[in-house]
Amino acid sequence: MPQEVERKFLVQSDGWRGLAEGTVYRQGYLCAEPGRTVRVRVAGDRGYLTIKGPTQGIGRAEYEYLIPLAEAEEMLDTLCLGALIEKTRYCIPVDGLIWEVDEFSGENAGLVVAEVELEDENQAVTCPDWVGEEVSGDVRYYNASLVRCPFGEWEEGGG
Amino acid sequence: MPQEVERKFLVQSDGWRGLAEGTVYRQGYLCAEPGRTVRVRVAGDRGYLTIKGPTQGIGRAEYEYLIPLAEAEEMLDTLCLGALIEKTRYCIPVDGLIWEVDEFSGENAGLVVAEVELEDENQAVTCPDWVGEEVSGDVRYYNASLVRCPFGEWEEGGG
């Protein structure tokens, strides 16, 4: 089974800026339940359909398929639940790992998170100094949650 | 937008038997809501992921993608909602149209329906004599409904 194992952190400074070019992401969900999510994503000029299973530790099953861009855009515009997620992703190599910094816009403006994908749950990770608190287990930061409850509406957050 | 326009009927006799070879279908749903369904299907030795939008008349948006068989089978076994649908499909050409006869097994055993896909909603259809009552608008016969409420549990149906 294809498996995604990743850790997620808040970004605490601007030290990552200028280290990579960004790609604009636009994504939404056909299904956003704890046990399964079905995500439609447009990343630059590519469309993807991604199914994820329930989170187990910091891993979860993930199935991703490239689909025609026009169909991904149609599904985003007509079929997805709630608000769409808009963000710019910067892929930054540090010590042999790729850190994906997501800078959100729209209703989640103000939120910047960094994810690192791992080979397995026990892999050691050295965080760059612009990486702050870990939020791997915090469902509020799931993109599927941000559709229903965007960062801009959090009391202690972006408000 | 890719669009599916089809009419669905009950099958009232065995006149269709022997007219085509059957293919075994096994399918389940990652999402089965009125406004959207996400279906995983194994048809013979092929896997598919299909997204459908809300029904409008007898039409609905449909996006279908071929996916690796092993991944489709894993999703059926681990991620789908409720019971799986098992049926054998027979594609029978009649007067220039293809009639898809679905003979259900498992929890929906006893149910046999015939669907015909059309170019548009107003296309004339001449039904073969083994085709009975039309059930196009009846949500109970949607495959996504049969997952939650199988034919074998209907009071007036297969019970």
UniProtKB/TrEMBL annotation, chains A, B:
Any single Pfam family the record assigns to this protein: CYTH
Domain CYTH residue range list: 2-148
SMART domains in the cross-refs: CYTH
Alphabetical list of PROSITE patterns matching this protein: CYTH (PS51707)
SUPFAM superfamilies linked: CYTH-like phosphatases (SSF55154)
Active site: Y29 (proton acceptor)
InterPro entries, A to Z: CYTH-like_dom_sf, CYTH_domain, NeuTTM/CthTTM-like
Protein's name according to its UniProt entry: CYTH domain-containing protein
Species name: Vasconcelosia minhoensis LEGE 07310
Source taxonomy: Bacteria, Bacillati, Cyanobacteriota, Cyanophyceae, Nodosilineales
